[in-house]
Amino acid sequence: MTDIKITLETLYDVLRNEKKREDLQKLDPAFFIDVVHYLREKEALLKSKQESQEVFAIGERDKLEYELRSLRRILKEIYEKREKKIIDIALNRSKTGSNIIDTSAMLYEEKEFYQAALDVLNQFREGIINRLFQGQLPEVPQLKSTLQEKKEQLKKELDTSFQQVSGVTRIRFIRPLPSFVWKDLKEYGPYDTGEEAEFASEVAELIVRKGRAERV
């Protein structure tokens, strides 16, 4: 699924696809950004209706409150469906040791979750069953320190990779954009309409493609 415009209906479609298909479904890389933007728009609109003294605003407020409840319920279901699929993928990888594992449908944050789950499964498999095979008592791995080391190493690699991206692009926002975290693990934004900023070309191209900004 690419270039998705987030609405309650499209989120229903995402959930329906995850339910009826065994494989993890592909989402736009900016899915989380779009969801946050949509959610904040609805919350801002609800706040304006709550402050309004007009009689007809009560009905609109009730409708918005229902939509927000539905939105959060659907997002929770989408997350849990995808969560189970990602855990199953990690479990299969840990059991088989196969390198033929397709992670292309995972969002960036989901790939982080997948790798962390795989690390835990592998460490306990090595510390328990593999040691038993060798006639040794199980040894529980020190997960906290090991995962922290991996996280710090990953951050260094991402920082280096991000810094090596050639060229920057200056863009002007034509729609507000909420704050987001990119691959360098840094937070950007939020940005208002008319504001200009420079990004690595990869980031700028994504924002422009999503219709949030234009090149300057």
Topology:
Layout: H1 8-20, H2 31-51, H3 57-96, H4 108-127, H5 129-133, H6 143-163, E1 168-173, E2 180-181, E3 187-188, E4 196-200, H7 201-209, E5 213-215
Antiparallel strand pairs: 1-4, 1-5, 2-3
Overview of the structural elements:
With 216 residues, the protein is mainly alpha-helical. It has two domains: 8-141, Up-down Bundle (Methane Monooxygenase Hydroxylase, Chain G, domain 1); 168-215, Ribosomal Protein L9, domain 1 (3-Layer(aba) Sandwich). It is built from seven helices and five strands, in the order ααααααββββαβ. The strands form two sheets. The chain has a three-stranded antiparallel sheet with strand order 4-1-5. A two-stranded antiparallel ribbon has the order 2-3. A hairpin with a 5-residue loop joins strand 2 (180-181) and strand 3 (187-188). It is globular, with a radius of gyration of 22 Å.
CATH-defined architecture of the largest domain: Up-down Bundle
Please give the number of β-strands. 5
The figure for the number of domains is 2
Structural class: mainly alpha
β-sheet strand percentage:
5-15%
Q: Uncertain regions: pLDDT < 50 for 5+ in a row?
A: 162-166
Mean pLDDT: 83
